[in-house]
Every structure is written in structure tokens, then in C-alpha cells.
Design brief:
The complex is a heterodimer of chains A (224) and B (207). Chain A is an alpha+beta fold. Helix content of chain A is 30%, strand content 19%. Chain A contains four helices and nine strands. A seven-stranded mixed beta sheet of chain A has the order 1-9-3-4-6-7-2, with no helix packed on it. A two-stranded parallel ribbon of chain A has the order 5-8. In chain A, strand 6 and strand 7 form a beta hairpin. Chain A is elongated. The N and C termini of chain A lie far apart (85 Å). In chain B, the strands form two sheets. Chain B has a four-stranded antiparallel beta sheet with strand order 1-7-3-4, with no helix packed on it. Chain B has a three-stranded antiparallel beta sheet with strand order 2-6-5, with no helix packed on it. Chain B contains five helices and seven strands; from the N terminus they run ααββββαβββαα. In chain B, a hairpin with a 4-residue loop joins strand 3 and strand 4. The chains are: A alpha+beta (224), B alpha+beta (207). Chains A and B meet through helix 3 and helix 4 of A and helix 2, strand 3, helix 3, strand 5 and helix 5 of B.
């Protein structure tokens, strides 16, 4: 008879995945909201843990602190929203200001490109669901194993071993930090291998296509 | 350069086991974990996917959808204008292009990682237009006995350290396992530093 049941192992694995995704957010997803004219407050999915970005037909909306938002209320202005407040209104609630004056339907896809100019898209870190949305596969098995062994050896019952629990607890902490730091550097830091000098993006760039910034001007020899 | 079969024989010898406590399957699983770990922490496996079609009107590319062993990006070469895309920007700097930068159409010039799965592009083609070459860090391949690992010869000891620590743990040999892990993590950092310096020597374009 095995020391630990499949249910116990699965439960510990899910706990480990929740802890890692909470301390090192890495599961990014986008979805869209169905907007109704005259309605400013909407409820987001329970899987949303932190909002990253809100796009109103491709244009970014800016978050407003609740303290500042109080200066808007009870303003009944309606129009195209340019700001929002999140989660200080109730769990998973988002409120737009001004109140939307148009109805926008939702769709099932295209949130990373094609549907941006016609939908209200939210980008967020989400909680894992252990099947479709999981922490990266290339670290998942080794990381969760340490936590599962830590918790199972600590639990009361036939398999209890405080020495083993202490060992795997230390291993879990080391792996969590090592993998988390490596993951953050992969997903947040630019590579900077192909350097483009100081000609970075700026507000002067318009949304209409034009020549690449590196094609402007004429070349001259050094000293001319 | 040893094959995986030779590495397994070495590990079994160090465990003083003739396949009684540790089967060939146990050794293979542990070797695969070691290979995955080394590839992830050191990014030692570099590959190129050539001729990927630009998807029109797509601000964020998910390379993992078309490349099975994709892990992290290195560079993008646009075959349409024969230029590398500039990677010297952060996602926050892209926001400086305007509140609606994700709608801007044109020749892609800049890219930056946008999470673990996606890459943000600025700008994007409005209609289908040619291909690009994609350089990336790859996941470790599946362990096959006759293959040699894509790891420097002098760093193959990483497999020994990892597997010995990994296989001794379940038997309560914590003190011995801890020593192997200490050696593993020390050598991993050295190899990782060497890999990064090799990449610096390959700097292709500096304006």
C-alpha cells in the first residue's frame, strides 16, 4: 500500500502551483468584456489575480486610485472611458469612467491582434487551473515534487518523517527562488543582443505607417 | 563526450547498484530531469527556426505555438527587409510609442518579451508579408541512450551530480544527497556564466 494517496499528492501539487504562481506571477492571459451602454461596473472572472492592462478598442486605459476616483463621483458623465478603478469596489469588480456610452459585444478570440480595435480587452495574471493554465512545463515537475514531498512527509500518518520534511522544505525554498528569478529574467528583461543605439520609440511615432526611423536622412562620411 | 548510456552506467556504478534498487527507468527519468534542469538554468541549447510566416495584424507572437521545443527568445531576423529587429526596449518603453501602440501597422522594428509565452512586436504588418527567422533557446530533447547530450563535455558531470542527489533522496541519504546538490548548483552557475559570455562574443550588430 503506498504511503500517500493520489488525492493527497494532487492536493499538495495544486497548493505548490498556487504558491509559485502567486509569488512569481507568470500565467498571462487576455479576455474581453461585453460592454453595455450606461453601465460602468463589471465583474471579472474569478481567475484574475492582477490586472496588467485594459484596452478600450486598442487604446490603453489608465488605473485610478480609489481616493482620486471619489473626486469623480457622483459625476454622471458618459462617453468613451479613459480610466478605470479595479477591486476597491467589491471582489473582481472593475468600474470605468466616464460611463460607457456604447454597447460593445464580446468575442472568443483575437485579443492579441485582430480584435483589438473592436473589443474591450483586459490583460491579467491569472491563477492556475492545473490543466490548461499551468506554470511552465520545463520547471513544473521538479518544483512541485519538492513541495509535495515536504507536505506529505509532514502530514500525520504512516509516512510521517520530520527529517525528510525539513530536507524537502529547504529544497522547495531553494528551487522556488532559483526558478522564479530565472523565469522573471526570461519574461521581463529585454535581450539587448541586437542593439539599436539611442533611436528608441517615442511619442513622436504616429499610428500610421512610415519609413523606418533608421532610413531617415542621408549618409555622410566621418568628418564631413 | 559520453552518451546517455555511458552516463547511466557511471551513475549506477557510483550508486553501487546493479539495477536492483535503481532500474534503468529510474535512471532515465532522473537523467531527463537533469537535462531539463540544465537546459532551463543555463540556456545552453540554441536553435533557429527559419522561414516563419508573419501573421498579419498580430501584436503578440507566441513562438511556442509553432515551435515544440521553444523556451525563450534570442533574436528575430526579418527576411522581408533583411534586418534584425531591435531588442533594446522594454515593454514599458513600448508604451512610450502611444496609448494605442498595439494598433500601429508597418514594418516590425522592435520586439521585447511579454511574459513567458509571448513576444510583443512594434509595429505589425497589416497584411501577410513574407517570413522571418527566429533564434531561440530550446528545451532539452528527450533522453535516448545512444545520443550525446547537447552540453559541453567538461560539464557533463552536472548529470552525475544531479542524478546522484536525486536518486539518493528517496532513500533518506540526505547528507550525501546534499553534498551532490551543492556541487551541482555551484557548477551550474559556472556553466551559466560561460554560456552568457559566449553569447556576448556573438554580438552581431552594434550601432
Amino acid at each position: 500500500m503506498p504511503l500517500f494517496s493520489d488525492d493527497q499528492i494532487a492536493r499538495s501539487a495544486e497548493q505548490a502551483e498556487d504558491i509559485f504562481a502567486s509569488e512569481y506571477p507568470c500565467i498571462i492571459e487576455r479576455n474581453n468584456l461585453a460592454i453595455t451602454a450606461g453601465v460602468s461596473e463589471y465583474t471579472l472572472d474569478s481567475a484574475v489575480s492582477t490586472l496588467r492592462k485594459v484596452l478600450w478598442k486598442g487604446v490603453r486605459l489608465y488605473p485610478t486610485p480609489h481616493r482620486e476616483f471619489r473626486t469623480f463621483a457622483p459625476n454622471a458623465a458618459s462617453g468613451r472611458p479613459d480610466t478605470y478603478i479595479y477591486n476597491d469596489l467589491g471582489q473582481q469588480k472593475i468600474k470605468f469612467f466616464p460611463t460607457p456610452n456604447e454597447t460593445i459585444s464580446d468575442s472568443g478570440s483575437g485579443f492579441w491582434g485582430t480584435a483589438l480595435d473592436t473589443r474591450v480587452v483586459i490583460e491579467y495574471f491569472r491563477t492556475p487551473d492545473y490543466s490548461t493554465y499551468k506554470i511552465p512545463a520545463y520547471l513544473r515537475r521538479r518544483l512541485l515534487k519538492a513541495y509535495v514531498l515536504k507536505m506529505r512527509y509532514r502530514a500525520e500518518g504512516r509516512g510521517k518523517s520530520l527529517k525528510a520534511a525539513k530536507y524537502f522544505s529547504a529544497k522547495w525554498e531553494v528551487l522556488k527562488q532559483m526558478y522564479g528569478d530565472e523565469l522573471n529574467s526570461m519574461q521581463l528583461a529585454p535581450i539587448r543582443l541586437i542593439l539599436g543605439g539611442d533611436n528608441g520609440p517615442s511619442f513622436r511615432d504616429s499610428r500610421f505607417p512610415h519609413l523606418s526611423y533608421s532610413d531617415f536622412g542621408i549618409s555622410v562620411r566621418e568628418g564631413e | 563526450m559520453s552518451t546517455f548510456a555511458q552516463i547511466k552506467a557511471r551513475i549506477a556504478s557510483d550508486l553501487n547498484d546493479a539495477g536492483v534498487s535503481f532500474s534503468d527507468t529510474d535512471l532515465t527519468y532522473s537523467l531527463q530531469d537533469a537535462y531539463d534542469d540544465i537546459a532551463f538554468l543555463t540556456k545552453c541549447i540554441t536553435k533557429k527556426a527559419a522561414g516563419i510566416s508573419w501573421v498579419p495584424d498580430l501584436s503578440y507572437v507566441a513562438p511556442g505555438d509553432s515551435i515544440s521545443d521553444y523556451m525563450s527568445p534570442i533574436a528575430i531576423f526579418n527576411n522581408v527587409n533583411s534586418r534584425f529587429l531591435d531588442d533594446n526596449v522594454t515593454l514599458r518603453q513600448l508604451e512610450g510609442c502611444g496609448d494605442d501602440w498595439e494598433l500601429h501597422h508597418g514594418t516590425p522594428e522592435l520586439w521585447t518579451p511579454a511574459g513567458e509565452k509571448r513576444i510583443a512586436l512594434y509595429r505589425k504588418y497589416a497584411i501577410a508579408a513574407g517570413t522571418y527567422d527566429f533564434y531561440y533557446k530550446a528545451l532539452a530533447p528527450v533522453v535516448v541512450d545512444v545520443d550525446t547530450p547537447l552540453v559541453a563535455t567538461d560539464m557533463q558531470k552536472l548529470f552525475d551530480f544531479y542524478c546522484l542527489g536525486d536518486l539518493l533522496e528517496p532513500y533518506g541519504e540526505f547528507a550525501t544527497a546534499e553534498d551532490y546538490w551543492r556541487q551541482y548548483f555551484t557548477q551550474i552557475e559556472i556553466y551559466k556564466e560561460r554560456i552568457n559570455n559566449i553569447s556576448k562574443a556573438d554580438l552581431l550588430l552594434l550601432i
